[in-house]
Amino acid sequence: MRCLTNLNNGITASKELLKVLVRIWGSGEKPSSTVPLVSALRAELDGALVNIEELIEEELSDNTTAKEGWKNKDRERFKAAFRLVVRELETEKAMRKRTERLNNELAAELAEIKASLVKTSGELKREKRSREVIKEIWNETVRGVAEDKANMEEMRMEYKRVKEEMEKEREMLQIADEWREERVQMKLSEAKLQMEEKNAAVDQLRNELDTFLQDKRREKEIENTNKLIENKNQLFQLGVVASGSEEGEEKDEEDEDEFESEDSDLHSIELNMDSKNNSYTWSYAAAAHEHKGKSVVIEDKIE
């Protein structure tokens, strides 16, 4: 702030000195009398340049410190997000191993069920053949031993008992098959639920990463906007452009009194900034009287 005040005062003093020089040259006095004024003007300009350099150094220092702070914050946020992703991946890996283990167990159980079904089917076939044999024996016994009704009745009761036991065993096998099927369905449902939870966690992580990237881009845009505003303010404060009319030089040939007006005192003050080599150029021009036929151009360039 102090540099800006000094710079403003220096530029104001330079303008006043230029006005005095233009009046002196317009009145036709000797150039030797303007040497102190030119020296004073150059001293004011040198002071303004020093203030400008100090202001630029302060701005660069502030920007560097702010950038380092933002970079550190971004690194910390990125590390936290990376650690979260690593933990999520480790959890997903554990869930996948568990799912594979469950799949292997289910495959083993299904293989056991299949083997049990094959075994039961063979037993049923053998039982059917046995039953057919018993029936044939029973028929032969009925035809051969008609008088032994008591034995026949006993064999018939035995047959019924065996049949009931077979029916009970068949029902038990059916119940066991249904129970195994329900168990398989329950395990499949659990595995599906776990996969859905994992997908939900991955979606949440993706949304959080998208939000983080959007916030980062928004902060970058705000930073660029603030820098642009600051640069414009600096140029507005540093650059003072007062352009006179080129037609004034032509009118000087007709009327010498126009040199005494304040509007024609200062013909041009231009500030040019070279963005490649960081150079600053001030150009000052004043036209003398026609019969004097002289012109003065003062240029200072700081690189």
Automatic annotation (TrEMBL):
Q: Where is this region: Disordered?
A: 242-272
Q: Which domain of life is it from?
A: Eukaryota
Asked if the keyword Coiled coil belongs to this entry, the reply reads yes
Q: Where is the composition biased (Acidic residues)?
A: 246-263
Give the UniProt keywords, A-Z: Coiled coil
Classification via InterPro entries: BLT-like (IPR043424)
Question: Can you tell me which residues the record assigns to a coiled coil?
Answer: 89-116, 145-222
User: What PANTHER family does this protein's entry cite?
Assistant: GB|AAF24581.1 (PTHR31071), OS04G0382800 PROTEIN (PTHR31071:SF7)
Q: What is this protein called?
A: Uncharacterized protein
Please name the source species.
Answer: Ananas comosus
